[in-house]
Amino acid sequence: MDILKAAVPNSLRKVIGNSTLDTLPDTCSSLHNFFLKFQPFCEIVTQLSDSSYGLCGKNKDDALKYKHLGNQCFVEADYVKALDYYTQALRKAPNDGAIENNLFATLYANRATVLYKMSLFIECLRDCNRALQICPSYAKAWYRRGKANVSLGNYKDAICDLNVAKIVETATGGKRQIESELKIILDQSKSTNTVEEPQHKENNLNTVGEVPHIKLQSISMPDKGRGMVSSCDVSPGSLVHAEEPYATIILKQCRETHCHYCLNDLPADRVPCISCSIPWYCSRQCQIRASGEMYLISAEASYILKNLPGVLGEYAAEVVECSYRELKVDDVTEHQHECNGVHWPAVLPPEIVLAGRILAKFFSKSSSDGITSFVENLELSHCYEHMPFESKLDSHIYAIVLLYCLKFSNEFKFSYERMSSINGISISQVVIVISQIKVNCMTVVRLKSVDTLGLSDQSGGFPIYSSAHLTNKVEQVRVGKAIYKAGSLFNHSCKPNVHAYFLSRTLYLRTTNVIAAGCQLELSYGPQVGLWDCKDRRNFLKDEYAFHCQCTGCSEVNLSDIVLNAFHCVDPNCSGAVLESRVLECEKQKIEHFLISDKVA
Ligand SMILES: C[S@@+](CC[C@H](N)C(=O)[O-])C[C@H]1O[C@@H](n2cnc3c(N)ncnc32)[C@H](O)[C@@H]1O
């Protein structure tokens, strides 16, 4: 992008830097025309959108290399490394579709064996399920599943697993080994009285859904635009809002540690995307929700399942089908349109990839609307006119690059005809979306434990620290960015009365104080009275969200704002405080206002 930016002539930069909403289509068109004649632009867009240039595609040779390394480590009993290699192999393995010798299925089964050796039985069970969903006649996966179920005390399931394994196993020696295992398990199960939980299913993403019962209204305010108020008195701790995101994106630094869909920590049995090697998911549910279902049970698989005797057939079908059909999946899922092994989703900044997701989602939902109604229908405020000079240029460049990447890199489900050709109007709409994202995007955070040595638990869900290293400190990690359409109507206050938190992707807002009917509900976009001084808060809000804060925290005197940067008077007999001149400047108006109102009182 630096090459593109550096190439823009000064005269054009100036016009773009001074552009307004009225002139935006013209400035977009001028920059577009300039790039069309600039040879490196073509090369850059081709490299970003052509999968033959990308490092994000699947590669069978790489997958086999990692599989081989995994096998070596397994033989050497280095299970941590074996787990890593098999996982890397899964990331690179193409889904070749063949039910027999399917590399995906083999890798899942191999990883299941490693997980079993590491005593991660639930994870082992899930990997066996994944292998069986691709290849239902995979005796090794049924066998390993049975062993994991025994370790979990699920004898009934284990007996079923081994019975299926015995039927689908073709080698006589293998059948004999399974039979002897079966006898042992049957004896064990008779001497144990355990209540068994069915273990077919993966993690369930649905959070325990507390529903807000308080009615909120959006009203217009002269100094802050629209804002949210409650129509009744609200007590502290009340849930006032819960919402699923319109679109989300994981932050670059969390790509290897958190699920790209639900943004939770990745477990040891993480699941890769089936078509490219960028995202990781915590489960198949998240993978399907992000990219759509990409492998279906084949006719051959159904035949195998149907030919298992009676109850065993039903049992195997339940394991293999795993009820993914019940999942609610969007028509154009978040990652689907990016998922061709192309480079741009990995390379462009997260907010720009998020803009692409919003665009895809919008067009998948509004079949008749053209791009000109895109911004209008999103109903989000934006800050284009207040954006700094450089940001205006950046957003012009990114909007053009994004549109070309989307256009060239896939057989996208939504029709690009509706976006018409790439021109000043369509580019200007994307520029505005980028500025909407800047103002309305929420940062999704997770709490992370940090141990006494300052090491964070980023192990991917399996314990690598002993109890002696148990944590004593918790910090917030920024994992993703998300647009919540209704949530973005809550304004900022440096003295907030609402607290925002996230469970998976869901935003929850809870009151922290008593809020009288008709009062504004406001959350903090970051800075708060007593934690940052007024000057820093205002600068942050200006830089990040392009507005001058009008909250009570910034217009009334707060003792904590004053003492935050105050020094004790050098005269030991004086108990007064000395303020730094920059802080004093910021507080002056508030203090004058305070003294006047004090006199009046
Ligand atoms: C996420 S939106 C909030 C909803 C917005 N008021 C609307 O009409 O859509 C953030 C924008 O609201 C305005 N805003 C929010 N809090 C504010 C505050 N404390 N002071 C001034 N403007 C504020 C700013 O224009 C900011 O860019």
Tell me what the structure shows.
It is a single chain. By secondary structure, the protein is an alpha+beta fold. It has 23 helices and 14 strands. The protein has helices at residues 2-7, 10-17, 24-36, 39-49, 60-75, 79-92, 103-117, 121-134, 139-151, 155-168, 172-190, 284-291, 299-306, 310-321, 344-347, 350-365, 374-378, 389-409, 424-440, 534-545, 552-555, 559-564, 581-600, and strands at 216-221, 225-230, 239-243, 247-250, 271-272, 280-281, 442-450, 473-483, 491-492, 498-503, 506-511, 520-523, 566-568, 577-579. A 4-stranded mixed β-sheet has the order 1-2-12-9, with no helix packed on it. A hairpin with a 2-residue loop joins strand 10 and strand 11 (506-511). Helix 5 packs antiparallel against helix 6 (79-92), helix 10 (155-168) runs antiparallel to helix 11 and helix 16 crosses helix 18 (389-409). The longest helix has 21 residues, at 389-409. The N and C termini lie far apart (59 Å). Mean pLDDT is 84; it is low at 454-468. The protein binds S-adenosylmethionine. S-adenosylmethionine is lined by residues 223-227, 381, 383, 439-440, 488-489, 491-493, 545, 547, 549-551.
